[in-house]
Amino acid sequence: MLGLWSVWLGMSSLAAFSSPQFLRSYKYGKKKDVEAFDPRPYLTTVLNCLFWCYYGLPFVNPNSILVVTINGIGLFIELIYLIIFFYYAATKGRKRVATYFICELILFGALVAATMLAIPEHKMALNRPLRAVVVGVICDFFNVLMYGSPLFNVRDVIKTQSVKYMSFTLLVANFLNGCCWTSYALIGKVDYFILISNGLGAIFGAFQLIVYARYYKTTPKDEDLSGKTTNEVQLCTNV
């Protein structure tokens, strides 16, 4: 059963990490121009993946190797996108990405150091290692933030009666990803940190798909439906 879920989680997470960014990166590579590409969603996803990788380590939350593996792959993919941006961006864009990235590493390093030094490995809380509880709360914060960020596009969709601000492939990938991780959290001993954030992610995803279905027919036929919006956040994702 766990082996089957490993396959599904890998597929859904890979889709969420790479859709629709792969095609955009290919386009930027051909044009040698990043246009209005906003790297902040990718930087946020990098930080999210880092925290989930840390959460899944044996000295934080034992028996979570799948969490580490999938988020490690996601981290690698997101870093490739950032490298593409860094390569083709102007000097100002490169400095901005470098600044954000360094700040993220400092934040991540500080929180890792704090949880490692201040919380003993064997101290328990809520029938779980206290270190896992603290790191799990941090991970949930970033996961819910990223799952919920595309909801800002819903306002534009309702206002314009057009779904050009939404990426259908990303909506589907995030919804399925949330469902798969929610199911995984219920296997064996319930992992409430994976369950809560991804359960909310599945609900957010379902709501966005309903909005997309509602306004798809009212979208002018000459509008681009590829979801070219700088507010789009790559989720989880993610766990």
From TrEMBL:
Subcellular locations according to the entry = Endomembrane system
Signal peptide boundaries: 1-18
Q: Which GO terms describe its cellular component?
A: endomembrane system; membrane
Residues passing through the membrane, by range? 65-90, 97-120, 132-153, 165-186, 192-213
Cited InterPro entries: SWEET, SWEET_rpt
One GO term in the molecular function aspect is: sugar transmembrane transporter activity
The alphabetized list of GO BP terms reads: protein homooligomerization
Task: Could you list this entry's UniProt keywords, alphabetically sorted.
Answer: Membrane, Repeat, Signal, Sugar transport, Transmembrane, Transmembrane helix, Transport
Carries keyword Transmembrane helix? yes
Q: How does it sit in the membrane?
A: Multi-pass membrane protein
Question: What family is this?
Answer: Belongs to the SWEET sugar transporter family.
This chain's function reads: Mediates both low-affinity uptake and efflux of sugar across the membrane.
Q: What is this protein called?
A: Bidirectional sugar transporter SWEET
